[in-house]
């Protein structure tokens, strides 16, 4: 008999998002860090067989801290506090893995995706190394509560910030900030691993002048930069991109080995330089974008 896992989360106990310098943006850029959250609802922890460190294996550790100096310079930053293992807000909310639930009301052929089938839908079934988060089936109603109380508030606030920026400056670049496991960066055949990946939906989400500028700035700092390799962009990059309204998106992936020890989730000596170099590049890009619509 399949185990049924039933619990309810008291969302009033948790601060869902964190934001910095969102009242008066100085540049037409909004920073989003959807996967850096380290908060695990206690009800969730009580119903998973994984350790906190195992659950953290999918998070983008310290990414919001890396770009915080850019925010301090006047770029709005929105960061998710809740762990990606609990809910992945860089997925479409209809990416539901129907095999996870014991009380699914009505199976639908329109739901799901390839990511769902491998366990990486909006409610993840696995973390890295294919480790199952649950040892049974969870409640569909509880999953919908996660979307209502975590997913929807993040995207509502992010949209508000993007619209505010576009209204003030006439254009907005949403930079979605992530990190990538060094193992992925190291499997490529080149001698030096990829250190930054700039993802543009294969040149569809922002003009070349934008991604070329920040790519050159990072290369001038000595980093190896790739475009759309190994990632081309996720849900946020696609969903918020509206070039006809001068709303552009750029996903930035940082090789974790450049700034942290992935085995123990600790910053290394490289953290400061990565933070300074990326933040300075973002602020320099912001200054360029101030003239982009003129």
Summarize the structure.
The chain has 294 residues and is an alpha/beta fold. The protein contains 10 helices and 13 strands. It is globular and about 60 Å long.
Write the layout of secondary structure elements.
Elements: E1 4-5, E2 17-20, E3 29-33, H1 42-45, H2 52-55, H3 63-66, H4 68-72, E4 77-80, H5 114-117, E5 126-127, E6 131-132, E7 137-138, H6 140-169, E8 172-180, H7 182-186, E9 196-199, H8 208-220, E10 225-227, H9 235-239, E11 247-255, E12 260-261, E13 266-267, H10 271-289
Parallel strand pairs: 1-7, 3-4, 3-8, 8-11, 9-10
Antiparallel strand pairs: 2-4, 5-6, 9-11, 12-13
Helix pairs in contact: 8-10
What does this structure look like?
- The protein has 294 residues and is α/β, with parallel strands linked by helices.
- It has a single domain (15-289), classed as Zn-dependent exopeptidases (Aminopeptidase).
- The chain is built from 10 helices and 13 strands.
- It has helices at 42-45, 52-55, 63-66, 68-72, 114-117, 140-169, 182-186, 208-220, 235-239, 271-289; strands at residues 4-5, 17-20, 29-33, 77-80, 126-127, 131-132, 137-138, 172-180, 196-199, 225-227, 247-255, 260-261, 266-267.
- The strands form 4 sheets. Strands 2-4-3-8-11-9-10 form a 7-stranded mixed sheet, sandwiched between helices. Strands 1-7 form a two-stranded parallel ribbon. It has a two-stranded antiparallel ribbon with strand order 5-6.
- Helix 8 packs antiparallel against helix 10 (271-289).
- The chain is globular, with a radius of gyration of 19 Å.
- It starts with a strand and ends in a 5-residue tail after the last helix.
- The mean pLDDT is 93.
